[in-house]
């Protein structure tokens, strides 16, 4: 069982490239942490520094209460699963899984020979010794792991006689048998087809629940991040953008990047200018204006709502809908748009529409497309002029310069 602590971690590669900057976070025992971000954002580099496969340029990495910056990978009590599976092609599945146990010493709980209870140390914790396992112990561990991953029947096969999903299970088995304190998984599902990814995703989640150990999982897939992580770390250009639960990342993105990265289709963003009306404050965009509900006013971080001051409005596709008079509501504003694309996906329909442009030239944003996500099939076709309702309770505002969330 282990907690991890990353304190101001930096990675500068030999060519001077700064891949990770000032990465700090505390990871609690048994958490499922997902590092997510676009290609090149530094997530694999961070994982590899935790694994000991990449030197840490600056900062401290704690596993439990020990600084492990200078520990070799095999001494960190971690196990890593790679995207490429990294199986030995000439060995059977059994030998692939058993291999690291045969060549390495592993931490083992010491049991009393008479009553078979764990022996406790002076702090009342189970005593652990580092030793090689016996052939019987290795066999027990391999069979137990194979059973839990449903690969017992393949133990005699070579990797080339397995499907991608089965190979991935073998790679997981190889990590499980070591009973590590921390599992590190680097895009383990990216070589699988979409359907298999979905089922392996839930299997890895169940594996985490069963093993009750700390998992750190790297992916560029926001669906994996949202569905698997107890907390998500969103990264961009080597910098942590936000660390939070999936729900909070989705509902309260810290900045425009996070808001746009998480969620499909992407959040709609429009540049707007504040307009102070008689009774209401408006967000005036190139295609019309919507109200800024009074309930938001105390929450606006810098509280500066000056007429003409620019702000970026964000609104998720599911907070916009094709307006139906029956759903009339004083927290909805309606604008007209022309439908350009309809994607009927069965359980939901994605509609792309062009909002009527007005105020030509007054707003520095030519974006008039709106992405709308409707549940169920909605009867609408390309070219239709539709009324588009904006749920005003669901808007996000971002600073036009820093892109930080202001509500
Ligand atoms: P991906 O999803 O594509 O694997 P990532 O977020 O995992 O991306 P990293 O592999 O951590 O990204 O790489 C971060 C940055 O560091 C990238 O710009 C990459 O080109 C650079 N980088 C990685 N390894 C080295 C290296 N050995 N020398 C120099 N630069 C490197």
UniProtKB/TrEMBL annotation:
Biological process, per Gene Ontology: carbohydrate transport
A Pfam family of this chain: TOBE_2
InterPro entries: AAA+_ATPase, ABC_transporter-like_ATP-bd, ABC_transporter-like_CS, ABC_transpr_MalK-like, ABC_transpr_MalK/UgpC-like, Mo/tungstate-bd_C_term_dom, NA-bd_OB-fold, P-loop_NTPase
Keyword Lyase: no
Signal sequence segment: none
PROSITE patterns per record: ABC_TRANSPORTER_1, ABC_TRANSPORTER_2
Source species, domain of life: Bacteria
Every ABC transporter domain range: 4-262
UniProt keyword Oxidoreductase, yes or no: no
UniProt-recorded Gene Ontology molecular function terms: ABC-type transporter activity; ATP binding; ATP hydrolysis activity
Alphabetical UniProt keywords: ATP-binding, Nucleotide-binding, Transport
Gene Ontology CC annotations of this record: ATP-binding cassette (ABC) transporter complex, substrate-binding subunit-containing
UniProt protein name: Carbohydrate ABC transporter ATP-binding protein (CUT1 family)
């Amino acid at each position: 069982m282990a907690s991890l602590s990353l304190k101001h971690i930096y990675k500068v590669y030999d060519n001077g490239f700064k891949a990770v900057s000032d990465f700090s976070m505390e990871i609690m025992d048994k958490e499922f942490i997902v590092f997510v971000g676009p290609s090149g954002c530094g997530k694999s580099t961070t994982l590899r520094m935790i694994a000991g496969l990449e030197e840490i340029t600056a900062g401290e990495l704690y596993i439990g209460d020990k600084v492990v910056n200078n520990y070799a990978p095999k001494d960190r009590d971690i196990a890593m699963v790679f995207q490429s599976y990294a199986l030995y092609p000439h060995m059977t599945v059994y030998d692939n899984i058993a291999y690291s146990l045969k060549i390495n010493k592993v931490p083992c709980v010491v049991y009393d020979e008479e009553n078979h209870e764990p022996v406790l140390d002076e702090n009342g914790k189970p005593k652990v010794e580092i030793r090689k396992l016996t052939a019987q112990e290795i066999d027990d561990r391999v069979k137990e792991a194979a059973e839990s991953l449903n690969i017992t029947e393949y133990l005699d096969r070579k990797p080339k006689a397995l499907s991608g999903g089965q190979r991935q299970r073998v790679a997981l088995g190889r990590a499980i048998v070591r009973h590590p304190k921390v599992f590190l998984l680097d895009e383990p599902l990216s070589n699988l087809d979409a359907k298999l990814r979905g089922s392996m995703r839930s299997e890895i989640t169940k594996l985490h629940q069963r093993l009750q150990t700390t998992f750190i999982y790297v992916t560029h897939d926001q669906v994996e991040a949202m569905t698997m992580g107890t907390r998500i770390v969103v990264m961009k250009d080597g910098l942590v953008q936000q660390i939070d639960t999936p729900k909070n990342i989705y509902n309260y993105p810290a900045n425009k990047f996070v808001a746009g990265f998480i969620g499909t289709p992407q959040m709609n963003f429009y540049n707007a200018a504040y307009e102070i009306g008689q009774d209401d404050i408006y967000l005036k965009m190139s295609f019309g204006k919507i109200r800024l509900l009074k309930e938001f006013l105390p929450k606006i971080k810098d509280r500066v709502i000056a007429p003409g001051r620019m702000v970026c409005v964000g609104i998720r596709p599911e907070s916009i809908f094709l307006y139906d008079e029956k759903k009339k509501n004083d927290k909805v504003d309606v604008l007209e748009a022309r439908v350009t694309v309809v994607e009927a996906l069965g359980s939901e329909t994605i509609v792309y529409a062009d909002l009527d442009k007005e105020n030509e030239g007054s707003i520095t944003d030519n974006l008039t497309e709106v992405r709308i996500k409707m549940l169920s099939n909605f009867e609408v076709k390309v070219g239709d002029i539709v009324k588009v309702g904006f749920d005003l309770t669901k808007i996000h505002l971002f600073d036009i310069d820093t892109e930080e969330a202001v509500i």
